[in-house]
Amino acid sequence: MEAGLFTANNVWMMVCTALVFFMHLGFSFLEIGLTRQKNTVNILFKNVFIICVGLLLYFIGGFNLMYPGFEVGDLGVFKFAGFGIAAPENGMTPDYADGGYTWWTDFLFQGMFAATAATIVSGAVAERVKLGGFMIFTIVYVGLIYPIVGSWQWGGGFLSTLGNSEAEIDLIRQGVENAPDAVGFYDFAGSTLVHSVGGWAALIAIYLLGARIGKFGENGKPKAIPGHNLPLAAAGVLILWLGWFGFNGGSVLSADPETTSLVLVTTCLAAAAGGVASFLTSTVLYKNYDLTMFLNGILGGLVGITAGADQMSPNEAVIIGLIAGVIIVLGIALIDKLRLDDPVGAVAVHLICGIWGTLAVGIFGSLAGMDQFLYQLAGVGAVATICSVSAFIILFIVKKVSGLRVSEQEELEGLDLHEHGMEAYADFRINEH
């Protein structure tokens, strides 16, 4: 490979790494915009904690859990390559990753993904979770569960070879020159491996936490608890859309012009279609132009296309986005009907649309077919099982040992004052009780 092409690939991957990092600002803006001002500092603290601790955990052991180097005879379920990180002998040369990037770029790009799962949970549990309990959950879930699940597919584990024979799997893991292609579950950039991993934990967390005070009336009907800053929420979604250029674009794992440009087109079309479908659906059902539904529809389209962004035509991307937009409105209504409280719509966006986008790989695109659909369904089921069970165990233990929810007084007066002793807007106070 030419040195210039290797450098171009690596620079593109570093730009994508920066864009994925930028997404954490988008998540922060979205979460604080859709919640009340008295909890702003708390939400920002959680998001800063997630990215800092997530990167350190990925350095300590997460990367080697996610990419452990499964060998012949391994079940492809769990393996650990050791603590810490060190570049292999050819890690800085075009011999590594087919010249797509260097080993250090690989680590940092993947590390930016690692923290996203906990960020999804942060929004769902906003305004009533104890900070200490949330931090404990983040450390265990990001440090262990996320990389183990990721290893099942991206690390060459059992999900990636569901359709291969044992002999073929042995050849794939030996890395022989004429080894067959891995055939199995497919998740290009993480509709399941990132978004649903966070979404399942968010669902379990809001079930164990219970709803915010005042969210549901005595008759069980949901009441709106408006966010304090919709301009920030809108800015957050637009930042996330921009960040998805790196999230999906970087998942090409090189600067290949054809694939990268297709991925960016399908990503943007699905986002636009998701937003339009969501606001039209909510307008028909609720007779108003709801900005928050519009914003979440964009995110739903982005999550929906993420599993197969490199496999879809522009037409198929629009269809996937349109369906995701409708799913968002119906999903949020379902969460309310179940009397679960999700302040930012994280479960509908990341879990329900994540499942839809994953299954869509078996319905649309170059991989479409019944076999692929069943592989996708199996992957969804496997991830649902480990994530739901592990999140429940972690959160239930935290709830019993130290408590998961703040007191009624703390919730009413705001977590900023009680957990942090400060306010986000010290000179601007309104009665929010």
Explain what the structure shows.
This protein is mainly α. The protein has 15 helices and no strands. It has helices spanning 3-33, 40-66, 103-114, 116-124, 131-153, 166-174, 191-209, 230-249, 257-286, 291-306, 314-337, 346-360, 370-401, 408-413, 415-420. α4 runs parallel beside α7 (191-209), α7 runs antiparallel to α12 (346-360) and α8 packs parallel to α10. It is globular and about 65 Å long. 54% of the residues are buried.
Number of β-strand runs: 0
Radius of gyration, in Å, reads 21 Å
What's the overall geometry? globular
- Strand proportion: under 5%
* Structure classification: mainly alpha
By DSSP (H or I, 4+ residues per run), the number of helices equals: 15
Mean pLDDT: 96
Terminal CA distance reads 63 Å
What is the string of helix and strand elements?
HHHHHHHHHHHHHHH
Helix content: 55-70%
Q: What's a concise summary of this model?
A:
The protein is an all-alpha fold and 433 residues long. The protein has helices at residues 3-33, 40-66, 103-114, 116-124, 131-153, 166-174, 191-209, 230-249, 257-286, 291-306, 314-337, 346-360, 370-401, 408-413, 415-420. Helices cover 64% and strands 0% of the residues.
What key attributes describe this structure?
433 residues, mainly alpha
